[in-house]
Recover the amino acids of this structure.
C-alpha cells in the first residue's frame, strides 16, 4: 500500500445539488476525486460526505474541509437556502473527524475563483475596459440569486459576502410595476430572488399568463404539470429547444423580462460596488441562456442608469461558463491560495 496523502475536502453545497471534491497541493484543477449528489435526497451534509468518501481510494486521508454553501454564514454557522440543512463548523469537524472545517457563502466561493478564471471559463458579453485594482461584482442566478463582490488591497483581491439578492425588487417600467403588484398579492416579500432565479422565472411566467399577456398552449400546460421544476421547460421552449413546431410567445416573453430585470439588478450591484474591475455572472442559469443574454436587452437594462450610462458601458461583463467555479473557489480558499 502506498503512502497516504493528506488532502482537502472541498464542496459546493446548493439547494439542488451538492458537489464534493478531494484536492491536494496540486490544486483544484487536478482533483483526486469528484462527485455530485442530489441534495434533497440526503438528511444532512454529513450523509453526503459519508456517501462520497465511501467511494474514494482508501489511501487518501482527509484532514480538513471547506464548503461553499448557499446561504449566509454567521459565526461559523449556516442555514442552507432552499434546503432544510443547518451547518456548523465545530459540529461538522467533530462528526467528520477532521482537524478543521470552514464554511463560506457559495457566492464568496465563486468570488475566490474569479481572479483565476480565464479562457474557456468565461463568455464575454461586454469587453469594456478593466480598471486595474477596480472592484469586481459577482451576481449568480441559479436556484436562488446570489451576489458578492471583491476589492483590491494593493496585493490581491478579497471577496466579500452579500445577500443583495434578497433586497426589495424595484420595477423600472409599467409592466414590472404590474408584476410587483401581482407578486405582492401572493408572497410576503418580493425580492430580486423572487424573480431573477430558478425559483423566480415561473413567477414571471405565471404573471404574464394570468394577466392575459400570452396564451398557454395545452401541450405546454400539460408538460408543466408533469414536472417539479418548470424553469428548464420555460427556458427550453423560449430558446426553441423543445421543437420548431412547439413555440410559445408566453415563454419567450417571460425569458425576455427575466433577462431585462437581471440586467437591471446587475447594473445596480455594479453601481453599488463601483465594479470597474468587471461584472461576472455566475450560477446555473446564465450559461444556459447565452443567446438571450447576448440579445441586447441585458446590456440595455444594465446600462440604463441615467447619467451613469457611460460608466456602466465601460465595465467588462463576463458569464462564468465553468460550472465548477464555486467548487474551485472553495478549494482555493481551503488551500490558502486566495
Amino acid at each position: 500500500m502506498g503512502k497516504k496523502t493528506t488532502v482537502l475536502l472541498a464542496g459546493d453545497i446548493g439547494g439542488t445539488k451538492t458537489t464534493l471534491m478531494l484536492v491536494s497541493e496540486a490544486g483544484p484543477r487536478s482533483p483526486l476525486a469528484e462527485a455530485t449528489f442530489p441534495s434533497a435526497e440526503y438528511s444532512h451534509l454529513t450523509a453526503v460526505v459519508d456517501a462520497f468518501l465511501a467511494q474514494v481510494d482508501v489511501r487518501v486521508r482527509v484532514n480538513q474541509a471547506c464548503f461553499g454553501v448557499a446561504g449566509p454564514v454567521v459565526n461559523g454557522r449556516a442555514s442552507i437556502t432552499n434546503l432544510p440543512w443547518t451547518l456548523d463548523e465545530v459540529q461538522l469537524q467533530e462528526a467528520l473527524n477532521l482537524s478543521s472545517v470552514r464554511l463560506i457563502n457559495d457566492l464568496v466561493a465563486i468570488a475566490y475563483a474569479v481572479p483565476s478564471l480565464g479562457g474557456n471559463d468565461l463568455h464575454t458579453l461586454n469587453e469594456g475596459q478593466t480598471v486595474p485594482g477596480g472592484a469586481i461584482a459577482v451576481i449568480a442566478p441559479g436556484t436562488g440569486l446570489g451576489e458578492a463582490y471583491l476589492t483590491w488591497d494593493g496585493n490581491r483581491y478579497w471577496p466579500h459576502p452579500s445577500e443583495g439578492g434578497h433586497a426589495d425588487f424595484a420595477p423600472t417600467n409599467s409592466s414590472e410595476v404590474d408584476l410587483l403588484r401581482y407578486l405582492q398579492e401572493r408572497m410576503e416579500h418580493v425580492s430580486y430572488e423572487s424573480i431573477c432565479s430558478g425559483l423566480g422565472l415561473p413567477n414571471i411566467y405565471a404573471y404574464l399568463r394570468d394577466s392575459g399577456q400570452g396564451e398557454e398552449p395545452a401541450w405546454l400546460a400539460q408538460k408543466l404539470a408533469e414536472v417539479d421544476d418548470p424553469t428548464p421547460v420555460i427556458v427550453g421552449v423560449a430558446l426553441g429547444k423543445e421543437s420548431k413546431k412547439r413555440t410559445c410567445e408566453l415563454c419567450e416573453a417571460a425569458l425576455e423580462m427575466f433577462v431585462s430585470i437581471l440586467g437591471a439588478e446587475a447594473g445596480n450591484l455594479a453601481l453599488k460596488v463601483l465594479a470597474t474591475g468587471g461584472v461576472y455572472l455566475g450560477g446555473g442559469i446564465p450559461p444556459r441562456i447565452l443567446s438571450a443574454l447576448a440579445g441586447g436587452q441585458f446590456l440595455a437594462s444594465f446600462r440604463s442608469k441615467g447619467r451613469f450610462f457611460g460608466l456602466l458601458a465601460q465595465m467588462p461583463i463576463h458569464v462564468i461558463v465553468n460550472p465548477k467555479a464555486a467548487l474551485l473557489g472553495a478549494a482555493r480558499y481551503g488551500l490558502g491560495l486566495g
Q: What stands out?
A: The chain has a mean pLDDT of 93. Residues 249-273 form the longest helix (25 residues).
